[in-house]
Write a structure and sequence with these properties.
The structure is a homotrimer of 236-residue chains.
Chain A lengths: L2 E11 L5 E12 L8 E10 L6 H15 L4 E3 L7 E2 L13 H25 L2 E4 L5 H24 L4 E7 L1 E6 L2 E6 L8 E5 L8 E7 L6 E8 L10
Parallel strand pairs in A: 1-4, 4-6
Antiparallel strand pairs in A: 1-2, 1-7, 2-3, 5-6, 7-12, 8-9, 9-10, 11-12
Chain lengths: 236, 236, 236
């Protein structure tokens, strides 16, 4: 079963560890044994947290772009409605969501349903609201996290400033020969990871260290400073 | 404290990774330090998911059979009611369970209470509804998972077809000299496992590979095909 | 960001693994990378579980004492109200807490608010109700757990009896040269730990073994008996 999925992830953190901007979005193609992305499209987004519900529209656009490049059997969207097809999702299903979040979702629901119908027509592929139960969504999150490391490093170099990046939930970043791997630390996900290729070798132009987010258990962070370091072998 | 407990676990999965049949049931005796079963009774059940609430009656029957073979201080049943004695569980305690599940439970409640009373009378042992908090229930689940591996391998050989088995939550299977070990991957359960003895050496007659369940985070699966393999040393 | 935090943790367990007395309280100072306490104040408390809501007042007192010794930017209290400043917490915020717990909290709320106001005035430091999201609270819990090991060993020696200690959630104890380390086993907390210095070398005067708490998944326990052992190298 070939699954296409997308997620936005990793956030810049201010001095008090509040998330300010979501850094990256990724769409991925995942196939058996469902451990890593076989193919991906990623983008730096640096999007404000406030409007983050609209990110899901962008995520579905990325899935659409990936579907134009490669075949898949199903699309998993990062919305948790028990795997219901997106086309069948009505305002009624949103009724047990709390006030504010529901307002945001209602705004984008008709757009998402239209896009899901387009995808069904063009590719004969269903868009399912699997969300937190989906491993491909998790792999998209980790892939977005890996590219967020590159984008944050670039930002640190370009703006000659220290940048603090909050990684996705329960993962850590490890520098490898040609890029960065973001490994899951969630239970039973020891072999799940996201990978970003560092073509411009930006990771050689920054120093980065790992820390724990004191205000969000299970979340780790990286701090980037311009300038190379002697020992770049581990993101610690 | 010697605890007897039971659970049903592991499920055959179809092409879309929906669970179709629950494969095995196990009753276990667990004693300090509560890491592995000291004794077990297991059965292939291949039971439909729909009627899975009745499986708990069968689980308590397995506990009863194990109590006839060995002594214990308490029975832990896989029902989560804060450790309440089964005999004291009334329809009122079920009132905050959602509609459908409550209907199923009400049907089996009087049967379970009667069985608990029988066990109390015959063995002077209390049946507690500890459920998800119970480590012996977890060990029963992993033991059922280990035997499910054997039963699935047998099915693959007998029916000359590929079989896909979804393991219990947060665990993986590892082939050892004389059987199969299903190790927990849940936090703080690194030394908890279930074990199945492969007397018929059925694992030598199948090839099996490990994959991640894409539709259920934290769940891993195995695929069995008839025919031996050269490298059988790990269930990967 | 220098964070001061406190927690009470680890409990004596009876033969049925019910918690009877909470053993230790700890206040800690934690700074980047937020993995271990930089400084701590700990106390044996052996407090009854029933009145455990009052422990939080004592925890804030320990934070106050630590603030008198060292500077900090913020205090994290083990109450989970989304990081709200303690001074702003009113009975209304407690309205979605269930009956009994709310009663306890209302009793201590005015006291906690007064203490938070005192801390703000004296040190210009805010007390935040971060609770379960706070890594410093977790480090305080593990530090309390490490000292609870020492206090339980002392109790076992003084009272010439076996003592069973339930460790905090998802951690294990490891004996080291000059004390005891309690390592987290929670996801993404592989480098988080609490440490207790064993000045009196009490750990040389007891034998202790590790077991799993059968009635509480994710919790491990230690059993102490007076008398030394030959192989004291690991808490297993």
């Amino acid at each position: 079963m070939r699954v296409i999925s997308a997620d936005s992830g990793a956030a810049l953190l201010n001095d008090r560890f509040d998330a300010t901007l979501i850094v990256a979005a990724a769409a991925v193609l995942v196939d058996s044994p469902y451990r890593l992305a076989k193919k991906s499209i990623t983008e730096p987004i640096f999007s404000r947290i406030a409007g983050s519900h609209e990110l899901i529209v962008h995520e579905l656009e990325l899935c659409q772009r990936l579907l134009n490049e490669t075949e898949a059997d199903v699309v998993h969207l990062d919305m948790s409605f028990g795997g219901l097809p997106m086309e069948e999702l009505s305002p009624i299903q949103l009724s047990n969501i709390s006030g504010k979040a529901r307002g945001y979702l209602l705004k984008i629901l008709s757009k998402l349903r239209k896009m899901a119908a387009d995808i069904k027509r063009a590719h004969n592929v269903e868009v399912l609201a699997v969300g937190k139960d989906s491993m491909p969504v998790r792999i998209a999150e980790l892939t977005a996290g890996a590219y967020a490391v590159l984008y944050s490093a670039e930002k640190s170099i370009a703006e000659k400033m220290t940048v603090r990046l909050g990684l996705p939930s329960k993962c850590y970043a490890r520098k490898v020969e040609n890029g960065i791997v973001v490994h899951s630390l969630a239970p039973a996900e020891h072999d799940i990871a996201g990978f970003a290729v560092d073509n411009q070798q930006v990771l050689r132009k920054v120093t980065f260290s790992e820390l724990v987010n004191p205000c969000a258990r299970g979340f780790r962070a990286l701090e980037f400073a311009p300038g190379s370091t002697l020992d770049e072998s581990r993101a610690e």
